[in-house]
Amino acid sequence: MPADISVDLSGVFKNLTLIGPKIEAEVLNGLDEAAAVVANHAKRGHPVLPFALREIYQPSIVDSYREINDDGSYRFLSRTGVTRNSILPIAATSRRGRLESHVVSGQAHSNDLEFGTVDRRAFPFMRPALEQNRQWIQNRLENAVRRGLER
Amino acid sequence: MKALKVVIHTALRDDSEALVGLRALLAQANVTPYGVYEGHFQTTPNFKTATGPASYLTWQYLPSTGTGTVQSDNRTREQAIAVTAWSENSDTLEDILTRARFVLEGMRRVTQPDHASAVELHQIRFEGSGPDCFDDKWKVYYRAEHYRIYFREKITSV
Fold first, then answer.
1. Does the predicted model carry a pTM greater than 0.90?
2. A66: closest CA among A85, A82, A79?
3. Is B134 on the interface with A (CB under 8 A)?
4. Measured CA distances, A7 to A12, A13, A73, A125 (Å)
């Protein structure tokens, strides 16, 4: 025969509503940091081609200026630095309980760089930047939640 | 890692099932390398062949993929890849990407690297789609889809 037991959960929910904003604030901070880290990584390693080499395009010489990823693949080369400098982290936001932060590139042709075109191979830079820092971001957000609970 | 590349490329290239296979969808069943390239197109692509419109599939490793585990002792590694379809017809594009997903996801049509190779394949998971893009010069639609490969490298002393 089942025992007549009741549990009052209202206290728990009250606590949760108090904890919620604290965690949210911490996670927003964490996301801001994550976006900055990813943006910095995406910006790094795209040196501007020396002025004399901008006009004569010789692959062998140009390639010697390229930075190389961990796995040996090339990073894209900047001609003027405009694309590189247009990579920005956007401040983290909370909309309807969904926490988001974005890293954007202001140049329209960044799509072509990241995904390639029929004529030009892809030089992914945004997604590898996220990949490289995935573990760090996960740890950072875990810490944020923990800190929010302890606050 | 080399064995991993071979396995992915072979799975995409050799999907020769009639009508629904990648070779049929790309409309390049009789032309080597069957419209599948690693990284980028090797030659000037031809989207309008004598028999009709042709499509292409390219795929590549995404660099800088981390180890994925905090403890790297067990050597379970991750590698993200992007699979991009190029087609004049956006419907065909969807079909190609759906079929590629069928081939790769859960390793449905991917064979394990053989025993001699130093890689053991665990899982391939679909992760997400890139944006729909349009190549102005060649007038083709293209889209990248991302997958994550979980594998183990058998590292032995040389």
1. no
2. A79
3. no
4. 11, 13, 59, 53
A89's tokens:
């982290």
Q: Across the interface, do B66 and A131 touch by the CB < 8 Å criterion?
A: yes
Phi and psi of B94, rounded to 5°?
Answer: -60, -45
Here the tokens at position B55 are: 């499509």
Helix, strand, or coil (residue A133) = coil
Contacts of B107 (CB under 8 A, 6+ apart): B121, B123, B124
Interface of A with B in 111-140 (CB under 8 A): 111-112, 114-122, 124, 127-129, 131-135
What DSSP assignment string belongs to B58-111? EEEEPTT----SS--TT-EEEEEEEEEEEESSHHHHHHHHHHHHHHHGGGSSPP
Amino acid identity for residue A1 in this structure? M
Whole-complex ipTM? 0.79
Sign of CA dihedral A54, A56, A58, A61: negative
Side-chain-facing half-sphere of B74: CA atoms under 13 Å: 9
pLDDT, averaged in runs of 10, over chain B (158 residues):
88 92 91 89 85 92 68 69 95 96 93 83 92 92 94 70
Q: What are B127's two structure tokens?
A: 């992760």
